[in-house]
């Protein structure tokens, strides 16, 4: 099948867009893994909880400001409102992560690792049914945000027919990536977190409260997962099992990039996103297997992942 | 014939390498007899279904295999449903495309497929330990799930029936039985397979191989220094544990006569299997089996009372993690924290008020600490 340059470009952009969503999920997971030494199996559920919550928040905020007004100002106000809604959603996830770490996880750090795995799996099961209880069995969706943002012309200006919402996701995703790297490279809190990742005991010795860092990191992970959920939901619908695939793909991303490496998670997420998206046009049955194939290859060639362990550099 | 030996002063018997005291022997006989009379009990009672117990035993058997890794090498596999599913799907494929009718041959096929699968996944994931290993096994398991879901030859999400050729069901001893008899007979087959499997596992835990695995689990580097071929041993343990999964998967397919990706390969299944091991007590031999029966039974009952049975499972797991970390068998054998508290309460009921006071104090302390932490996280130190 011949692939036109336009189609290739569209698929690549789709891949990059998905890669950014994946990065937001995987970055939280990888930072939690690198610092707390806990594999958070409930991370996918936090993502889908974010998606469900976002639908409510979008509805609420659009109910207040109404559809986008005319002209540049109206559009800008609408985009800011959507961003605010995404942030509010992510902020709602903060206490979920904080409470889970501080109340449940903290009690059992000194036990066998399998118990921590069980505990995060427990959270997964509980969140699954909490969602079912609140939002019911059937999938729910919101069209308003997607269609309103798509009405803004962007790619049409360069003669390409590409949904503006995807461009929006890529832009916001880049901002999140930049923000995260800035946070871990430049801020004091970010450096404290990295110091804890490098050497937990030494960090304690210079006066870092690891309890606080752990809570903060878990809350940050939940925040990012909620953010990703809110960004991912407008084009599709929120379903009960939507958390599984991103969770497993994030595992693949983490393995490719290196355990706990933020830079690795970024490269891995874009790689997985783009290759998966190319596969959809080139060889559809390979879509599911392709990320795992890359993972197996990396494991054989460079078992510690592309960027090794996190800490020394972000 | 049993031979009398002496174990720490108590008389014990040794038979086929199994060494038991008189009390343990009584439990053993009781347990085996109980397993064999379950079909009769189930036919008398409405609430107890043979198929539920049967399924619990099969998943418990996978957990017994998983336990070899968990207990000795300290490796947590989160993808054991992969081997269960491989066994089940191998059976289905053999029956459907090769027209194999005999249960024995189908099971052999399941074992072969699971062995190959465990060997491959083992090579790829055993370079790593700890969480990395858990993450890799989960990813590979989910890959198999995706393949089963995506391939139309494997039936996609509808799954595959196991109805070889003209026969309506696989043949036992070359004979076709009526469905009722078939169900009971396959149950007895399962019990026999499980007893053999437990025996083999017991012999493994009495062997130098187990000691080597223990050493590897405690400290890998040291184990390598004293000359143990660490990677080969761990790989062997992984394959053995995968074979247990394959056998159970094959039996599951033969019994249910239908395989679906959700029931066999989905990662929630892997989670279930891991928790069966912990629920029953992963430091014991039969614990995982009992955990399997209990968990499947609870989920079955839970499905009847509420649609939120995942929540119910979650709550059971929470109680388990905080109250009985050693699992059912482990807690029965040596009293856990709860047992100690209970006996204290029986001796002196007034201890309750002291507990209440300490609990209130510790909650108050924790809330204060949490508020301080929150303040510091939000506003910094000063």
From TrEMBL, chain A:
Source taxonomy: Archaea, Methanobacteriati, Methanobacteriota, Stenosarchaea group, Halobacteria
Similarity section: Belongs to the binding-protein-dependent transport system permease family. LivHM subfamily.
Major subcellular site: membrane
Gene Ontology annotations for the cellular component aspect, listed alphabetically: plasma membrane
Cited Pfam families: BPD_transp_2
InterPro entries listed in its UniProt record: ABC_transp_permease, BCAA_transport_permease
GO biological process terms on file: amino acid transport
Transport in keyword set: yes
Record keywords, A-Z: Amino-acid transport, Cell membrane, Membrane, Transmembrane, Transmembrane helix, Transport
Protein name per its UniProtKB record: Branched-chain amino acid ABC transporter permease
Bilayer-spanning residue ranges: 20-39, 46-66, 72-94, 114-134, 165-184, 213-235, 247-275, 282-301
GO molecular function: transmembrane transporter activity
Localization of this protein: Cell membrane
Membrane topology: Multi-pass membrane protein
TrEMBL record, chain B:
Transmembrane stretches, start-end: 25-42, 48-69, 81-99, 105-124, 131-154, 181-202, 233-253, 273-296, 308-325
Keyword check for 4Fe-4S: no
Main location: membrane
Annotated GO CC locations: plasma membrane
GO MF term set: branched-chain amino acid transmembrane transporter activity
Record's bilayer topology term: Multi-pass membrane protein
Subcellular location as annotated: Cell membrane
Name of the protein described by the UniProt record: Branched-chain amino acid ABC transporter permease
Organism of derivation: Haloarcula sebkhae
